[in-house]
Amino acid sequence: MLRKIINPCGLHCIKVKDLGVAFGDQVVLEHVNLHIHCGSLNVIIGKNGAGKSTFVRALLGDVNHTGTIEFKDRENGKIQKLKIGYVPQKLNLEKNTPVSVYDLMASCCSKTPAFLYKSKKLEAKFKETLDVFEAGDLIDKQVCNLSGGQLQRVLLAMAIYDEPNLLLLDEPVSGIDQIGMDLFYDIIDDLKKNYDLSVILISHDLDMVKERADKVILLDKTVLKEGNPKEVFESKEFEEVFLKVR
Predict the structure, then answer these.
(1) How far is CA 204 from its chain centroid?
(2) Could you tell me if 67 and 19 are in contact, meaning their C-beta atoms sit under 8 angstroms apart?
(3) pLDDT tens, 176-211?
(4) What are phi and psi of 60, to 5 degrees?
(5) What are the strands of the beta sheet with 215-220, ordered from one edge?
(6) Fewest CB atoms less than 10 Å from the CB: which of 53, 139, 172, 218?
(7) Each residue's pLDDT tens digit, 114-153
(8) What DSSP assignment string belongs to 190-216?
(9) Residue 34: φ, ψ to 5°
(10) Phi-psi group of 129: left, alpha or beta (phi > 0 → left; psi -120 to 50 → alpha; rest → beta)
């Protein structure tokens, strides 16, 4: 579970240096360079096919890439292994599958198979993490019966359980109503203020980006522009991607 830190240090960072991804002759990403600091919400925007999800997959190690991804430790500056929490767009689970929230968390967050026995100690730890997202009462619910908003809160709890340095969110509010979206972003705001981690979010909700993001990254195969929302949204690069009449 995450150890709460009142003031994120702001010193450690994830450094992406000259990252590139190609599938055969198709170059999807090239020369991507980014510094992501803890205690900040970094939102990646771009048109469809810009390489946003591929970038997340590269960070997760799901696709081969060139370049380097480094984690600078906040205490001594040494390169250490980067721990990543991940919340996908959706969870593919067959309807009526008899899997509870506890079962799901045990299968992903514990070395003990959930089907052997239910650990009271583990259940208490899971519930404590779920409570961070106002989801402790869901621990015995069937996953297939959760609403979109409830499921996202469970997935967030699973993502932070192992104290990640980086939280990756790939369009996590797709299909969630406005109330659920507002709660989700309030939770993310609390995480970035009170926990020592970095957050990277992919989003198409430009109004939310303007209101919530600390840093905006405009991606189209490479980083076209980065900065605060005002700097990016008023840039010629943003206009060429989103506003230019073709």
Answers:
(1) 14
(2) yes
(3) 777 777 888 888 888 888 777 889 999 988 998 999
(4) -75, -15
(5) 84-87, 166-170, 198-202, 41-45, 215-220, 222-227
(6) 53
(7) 555 678 888 899 999 999 888 899 999 999 888 888 888 8
(8) HHHHHSS-EEEEE---HHHHHHH-SEE
(9) -145, 150
(10) alpha
